[in-house]
Amino acid sequence: MKKSFQFIIIIFLIISSLNYIVFAQQQQQSGSNNDKYSTVAPEDLTLEELFLGLKNVPLDSLVPIVQAGDDHDLLLIVVQMLAANKSKEAIDLLIKILDIGVNNVKVENGVIVNNFWDVRVEAAYVLGELKAKDAVPKLIEILQKDNDPIVKAYIAMALGKIGDKTVVPVLINLLQIYKNEYKSSNAPLIYGIIVALGDLGDPQAYGVLLEVSQGNFPMYIRQIAIQSIKKIQTGGKS
b/e map of 60-76 (b: 16 or more CB within 10 Å)? Predict the structure, then answer.
């Protein structure tokens, strides 16, 4: 309940800020004209109207939040707002969010304070759902640079959903590395890569997946390798 209340407050604050921005922009554009501008006060809106209003927020107003990259809750909301937007501008913002905590790093007393792994996970997931091919280079970069195996797992699965088979050699190479130096901490990443290779359905991956399916790995990893082999046999279909 407390988290739900906090989420509503955050939405309230976003709408308050954005309404002010829109109103100020309108006033600036009007110059000395006597045109009247009005905006509905956030306190007069229902919760449903607040959510509907989020869908109509100008993307330009989200850029400062992403560039700052230091407000965890706002960034999660921004990702959700972008999830239903297939425009190039929305994709570009999601790509920039992948940098937060990796390239766009905030450090206090020698500690990274914006390593929002779950924000990057959400951004990667949305990019996969949107099948954003423009995001492939950045996804590969973060896959190789990020230190969080969970983030890497979701990035790999996003690449699988996007369906660009040019990433297959990269994923095969990474799977070879991680399977040969297996650690339980990397199990989520190995799982994600295997899922991606199955979704991509490229026969190049057959050999390494067969090795994993017969190797000394946890049962769920061997099982997903078998499932991915079957998907390759059917061209990426279950």
Answer: eebeebbeebebebbbb
199 neighbors 159 (Cβ within 8 angstroms): no
The number of CA neighbours under 13 Å toward the Cβ of 37 is 14
Q: Give tens-digit pLDDT for 90-104.
A: 999 999 999 999 999
Structure-token pair, residue 139: 């996804």
Q: What is this structure's pTM? A: 0.78
Q: What is the pLDDT of residue 56?
A: 65
Q: What is the pLDDT of residue 237?
A: 59
Helix/strand/coil (H/E/C) assignment for every residue in the chain:
CHHHHHHHHHHHHHHHHHHHHHHHHHHHHHCCCCCCCCCCCHHHCCHHHHHHHHCCCCHHHHHHHHHHCCCHHHHHHHHHHHCCCCCHHHHHHHHHHCCECCCECCEECCEECCCCHHHHHHHHHHHHHCCCHHHHHHHHHHHHHCCCHHHHHHHHHHHHHHCCHHHHHHHHHHHHHHHHCCCHHHHHHHHHHHHHHHHHCCHHHHHHHHHHHCCCCCHHHHHHHHHHHHHHHCCCCC
Q: Could you give the C-alpha distances from 30 to 26, 35, 37, 41, 60, in angstroms and in order?
A: 6, 7, 9, 21, 20
Summarize pLDDT for 214-238 with one digit per residue, the tens.
999 999 999 999 999 999 998 655 5
